[in-house]
Design brief:
Helices cover 0% and strands 48% of the residues. The chain is mainly beta. The radius of gyration is 13 Å and the shape is globular.
């Protein structure tokens, strides 16, 4: 069964950087498109980015384009979200999933951008 564990969140000042990780198991990771989502308090979950099975193609929400970089290491069944130039509006719980997302969601990792 699908199992996803996110890590790397934390508190960072505006303009700072964080790198999130997602460890996947229970399915053939290298054959799936994968995604990052985020959910801010009181808001619906939104798609941040998705990536092709090989990692050769990525797509980003306009709000994070040119600031976030999505990558994956299929040998390690792990994917990453490098987040630079963070803004307070990036504050949210970040979760990874296959793309399109399944019904299973991990616990997510909290990112808080605040001075």
């Amino acid at each position: 069964q699908v199992h996803l564990v996110e890590s790397g969140g934390g508190l960072v000042q505006p303009g700072g950087s964080l790198r999130l990780s997602c460890a996947a198991s229970g399915f053939t990771f290298k054959t799936y498109m994968m995604s990052w989502y985020r959910q801010a308090p009181g808001k619906v979950r939104e798609l941040v980015a998705f990536i092709s099975p090989t990692g050769g193609s990525t797509n980003y929400a306009s709000s994070v384009k040119n600031r976030f970089t999505f990558s994956r290491d299929n040998a390690k069944n792990t994917m990453y979200l490098q987040m630079n130039s963070l803004k307070p509006e990036d504050t949210a719980v970040y979760s990874c999933n296959i793309y399109p997302p399944g019904t299973y969601w991990g616990q997510g990792t909290q990112v808080t951008v605040s001075s």
